[in-house]
């Protein structure tokens, strides 16, 4: 199965911020949208970085409340692992596990076209397992 299957089911909307936004802005966005990460755009439809709940927590632990006034550009992860719609879901899952991150922007060339989370991957795997089990039950019942 490919990443495209996840995007087809969940949609392609991605919440983004600009590098000049503050961490307080990001915290509000994460809370309002009930998400764990936002992509930092480069102004041309591409990815400049990503900022996650984990990044915010680390900044708060080291800087205290002053971290909320920091710019996203100061704290974002700049080296973002991305995927493409035609990547295998298992390959993306392995990259996430190996890299210990939970969100992967999906690209088409240099353009951001979606986001896949570890939750999306797990949901897809569960649905696949349930479909396979149902097919096996049906096969056994007709044998």
UniProtKB/TrEMBL annotation:
<keyword id="KW-0129">CBS domain</keyword>
<dbReference type="InterPro" id="IPR046342">
    <property type="entry name" value="CBS_dom_sf"/>
</dbReference>
<dbReference type="InterPro" id="IPR051257">
    <property type="entry name" value="Diverse_CBS-Domain"/>
</dbReference>
<protein>
    <submittedName>
        <fullName>CBS domain-containing protein</fullName>
    </submittedName>
</protein>
<feature type="domain" description="CBS">
    <location>
        <begin position="8"/>
        <end position="68"/>
    </location>
</feature>
<feature type="domain" description="CBS">
    <location>
        <begin position="76"/>
        <end position="132"/>
    </location>
</feature>
<dbReference type="InterPro" id="IPR000644">
    <property type="entry name" value="CBS_dom"/>
</dbReference>
<dbReference type="InterPro" id="IPR044725">
    <property type="entry name" value="CBSX3_CBS_dom"/>
</dbReference>
<dbReference type="Pfam" id="PF00571">
    <property type="entry name" value="CBS"/>
</dbReference>
């Amino acid at each position: 199965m490919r990443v495209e299957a996840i995007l087809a089911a969940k949609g392609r909307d991605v919440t983004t911020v600009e590098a000049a936004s503050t961490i307080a802005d990001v915290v509000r966005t994460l809370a309002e949208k009930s998400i764990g990460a936002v992509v930092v755009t480069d102004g041309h439809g591409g990815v400049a970085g990503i900022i996650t709940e984990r990044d915010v927590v680390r900044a708060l632990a080291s800087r205290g409340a002053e971290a909320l006034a920091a710019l996203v550009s100061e704290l974002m992860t700049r080296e973002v692992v991305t995927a493409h719609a035609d990547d295998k879901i298992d390959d993306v899952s392995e990259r996430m596990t190996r890299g210990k991150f939970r969100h992967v922007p999906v690209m088409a060339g240099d353009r951001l076209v979606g986001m896949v989370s570890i939750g999306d991957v797990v949901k897809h795997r569960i649905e696949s397992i349930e479909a396979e089990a149902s097919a096996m039950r049906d096969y056994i019942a007709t044998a």
